[in-house]
Amino acid sequence: MKKIYLNKITLFAILSSVLSNYAAQVGVGTSAPNINSALELSSTSKGLLLPRISLTSTSSASPLSAHEKGMIIYNIAVVNDVVDGIYSNDGTKWNRLYTNKPNIGDVYYSFAAADHQGWYLLDGRNLTVLTTGAQTNAAKVGITISLPNATDRYLKEKGSSALLSIGGTQTITLSQQNLPNINYSGTTSSDGDHSHQYTDRGNTTWNHGSGSVQLANTAQLTNQNTGSAGNHSHTVQVTSGGSNTSIDTEPKNLAANAFIYLGF
């Protein structure tokens, strides 16, 4: 029995020595791992498969029990502010690893509803509610008081307009100067001779002296006709019947949110 006991001690010592040698560097697929690595994987036909888990948001550690600085996973969920991709944990939140990191001031459209991964919704809010780093980066691109409000607006190349300036309207109203420079004229038909009746003021009598003198013959001056000659024209004014209703110029569209990258 003593001999067996010594053999167990010897075996334990040998295993401890082997594990101690591998504690510094572990090689998978190689017998000579890099001396500066704790683990080296080597293969000409296989890759590293990261744990695939479903995150719920960048601020939540779930499904982990707590944030763990240095943790790397592949997220397969698309929810809240996380999308499909590789994420690392900085001890307080998850950060997506980009193949091409965006630049400060980059703008893009998304169906995401809230800020995410250094991207901030262009909703007109005051910069004081953003992180200190985001405020500093906003100043670098000329945003000093509040984020531009992109609600119901299209982005356009600035051209002669000032950067970050807001302009345009969704409706137009035609005024007289917007109408074509055309003169419309016309006359009524010149045929159709006609008469007009009138009653002259001499339809009353006036007595002078004896009061029996009649100065006008009312029978001859009442309801007399003008001559039938005298063709003439009339000026005609025609109303448009419009109501000054504005014209909606907005084309058919698909609504999305606009975000600007200001980092963390």
Descriptive notes:
Helix content is 13%, strand content 15%. It is of the alpha+beta class and 264 residues long. The protein has three helices and 13 strands. Strand 5 (85-89) and strand 6 (94-96) form a beta hairpin. A four-stranded mixed β-sheet has the order 3-4-5-6, with no helix packed on it. Strands 7-13-8 form a three-stranded antiparallel β-sheet, with no helix packed on it. Strands 1-2 form a two-stranded parallel sheet. The chain has helices at 2-22, 132-140, 218-221; strands at 26-28, 39-41, 52-53, 72-75, 85-89, 94-96, 107-110, 119-121, 171-172, 197-198, 224-225, 247-248, 257-261.
Could you write a compact summary of the structure shown?
By secondary structure, the protein is α+β, with helices and mostly antiparallel strands. It is built from three helices and 13 strands. It has a four-stranded mixed β-sheet, with no helix packed on it. Strands 7-13-8 form a three-stranded antiparallel β-sheet, with no helix packed on it. Strands 1-2 form a two-stranded parallel sheet.
> How would you characterize the largest beta sheet?
4 strands, mixed
- Judging from the principal axes of the Cα atoms, what is the shape? rod-shaped
Q: Which blocks of ≥5 consecutive residues have pLDDT under 50?
A: 1-6
The Rg value, from CA coordinates, equals 46 Å
Strand element count = 13
Could you tell me the strand content as a percent range? Answer: 15-25%
Tally of individual helices: 3
Beginning-to-end CA distance, first to last residue: 66 Å
SSE class:
alpha+beta
Helix content: 10-25%
Average of pLDDT? 79
Q: What is the spatial order of strands in the main beta sheet?
A: 3-4-5-6
One letter per element, helices H and strands E, the order comes to: HEEEEEEEEHEEHEEE
